[in-house]
Amino acid sequence: VPTDPSPDPATATTRRSFLARAAVGGALVTAGVAAAPIGSLVSPAGAQDGMLVSDLYSDAEFAVFATPLELAAVQAYLAAARTELLSRDWLQRIRDFGSHHQAVADTLNPLRGEGASRPRPDEALLEQSTAAVEAATDEAGVLAALAELESTLAATHLAAVELLREQFTSGIVTQVLMVESQQAALLATAAGDTIESATPAVASTAGALTPA
Amino acid sequence: MQEPTMSSTPDTPAPTSRRDLLVGGAFGAAATAFLAACGGGGDSAPLGQSGIAPSTTLVMPTVPLEEPSDADLADDVTQLRTATSLELLAAQLYAQYAPRIADAEWSGHAARFAADHEAAAEAFAEATPAAQRVTEPNQVVQENTVDPVIATLQNDTAILNFFAGIERTLAATYLTATAAFNVRDGRANFAAHAAAAARRAALMGNGGEGVAPRGPLFPTTDLIAGSAYLSEENAMLAEAEAEGGAEGEDPAAE
Questions:
Q1: Which residue of A58, A175, B3, B193 has the smallest Cβ count within 10 Å?
Q2: Buried b / exposed e across A109-146, counting CB within 10 Å, b at 16+?
Q3: Closest of B170, B171, B174 to residue B187, by C-alpha
Q4: Percent helix, strand, coil in chain B (nearest 5)?
């Protein structure tokens, strides 16, 4: 499934934004999760009014979308390990982080359905992330490229959380994005980013990928 | 060259959007189920089966989302009240201990985290019906998790490890809330706060050296105790305990 990298938070959650616009009668929704109010508990109808079950991702639909992304991450980590730019400690961590993405892909893959073809890494994300890794000239550059990848995946999963039909799956996806967020923070600070930039008050959907 | 007409079929099929596929697929399955349910008499029923054939369709494409019940909303209020109380506790602890961190950089971050948690508390409170908002830090977590270790917070390593633990507690609690929250867009907001807490925990762990995740899924091992949730049930239990205690005191007083 090709993906559409959306650096602009306003378009990061296309499907959600569309639904939200419909729900509020055409008002423009210009921000992702970070700027949205927490729930609409006082007026619950506002949150779900107008939404259909079919507007949400089934587990299979989400798995079809997300499995190739995780596989692309696995490939990017393999590319990082091949650079010979990493210290022994970071090489081990890189292998661990890559294995986490493989484990997520292995978990998602069966959800795609019996008739689904063998999943392949998402081409766009694979090309983008491996190119960034291979362009690096030192360890910090490799780690920065992987940090960007992790942030993208975490934002993508965060954008999907409220669009998942099954509450249980929302929880699993949140567990995944939390680990990806941690990996992003550790990679980014090791690459030279400040702790401040690696610890936002609230996670954002900026940069999230959406199904094409 | 033949002029295309409205009814012409292009050589290359037009790209099918994802929505088309989903809608078409769902409708197709629904139609199949509908036909199966409407299907004739006993002649068409498979051997070994009686009654209407079971539908394999899980959802119809035009089914509106189910509105949360009153009980669901009450559960959501509990999650929001609990989150508010946890954020207030975290903000208070950071404010108290940030100045005691010798490392200037981490001390500054801790002060910033205090402000972040204060803002999060306000956000959770605003999402809570006004009459049910919480203004006090979580007492159960204070007594069971914080108080037993507070005397050990004598150096940077101990303080940062302590805060990493607090953040893991918040992260695990919000993660659980994500899977339990009934109003849909509230889930993402809990997830967004959970991810932020997870980041802080990863960087402050190991005395500020950082701790890498050990698996692909964030663990729920640091989830707060059931008694720490600010639910009506826990409030009633606490009230009953207080009354019981008061009753128990009476005979002694006599």
A1: B3
A2: bebbeeeeeebebbebbbebbbebbeebeebebbbbbb
A3: B174
A4: 65, 0, 35
pLDDT digit string, tens, across residues A65-123: 999 999 999 999 999 999 999 999 999 999 999 999 999 999 999 999 888 889 999 99
String of DSSP letters for A5-48: E--SGGGTTHHHHHHHHHHTTS------GGGS-S--TTSHHHHH
Is residue B140 within 8 Å of B224, Cβ to Cβ?
yes
All residues of chain A having their beta carbon less than 8 Å from the beta carbon of residue B202 are: 181-182, 185-186
Which of A172, A179, A196 best tests the B interface by mutation, with the highest count of B CBs <10 A? A179
Give A-chain residues touching B124 at CB under 8 angstroms. Answer: 38
Instruction: Kindly list the residues from chain B whose CB atom is less than 8 angstroms away from the CB atom of residue A58.
Output: 58-59
| Phi, psi of B64, deg, nearest 5 | -70, 155
**Residue A187 corresponds to which amino acid?**
L
ipTM for this model = 0.80
Q: Which two tokens stand for residue A124?
A: 């766009």
In this predicted model, what pLDDT tens digit does every residue of B104-147 receive, in sequence order? 999 999 999 999 999 999 999 999 999 999 999 999 999 999 99
B21 at the A interface (CB within 8 A)? Answer: no
Name the residue with tokens 């949400």: A56
Q: Give the closest of B192, B200, B212 to A96, CB-based.
A: B212
Cα(B254)–Cα(B251) distance, integer angstroms = 5
Q: For residues A85 and A79, what is the distance between their CA atoms, to the nearest angstrom?
A: 11
Residue A206: which residues within 8 A CB-CB, separation 6 or more? A7, A9, A12, A32, A34, A155
**A176, B216: Cβ pair inside 8 Å?**
yes
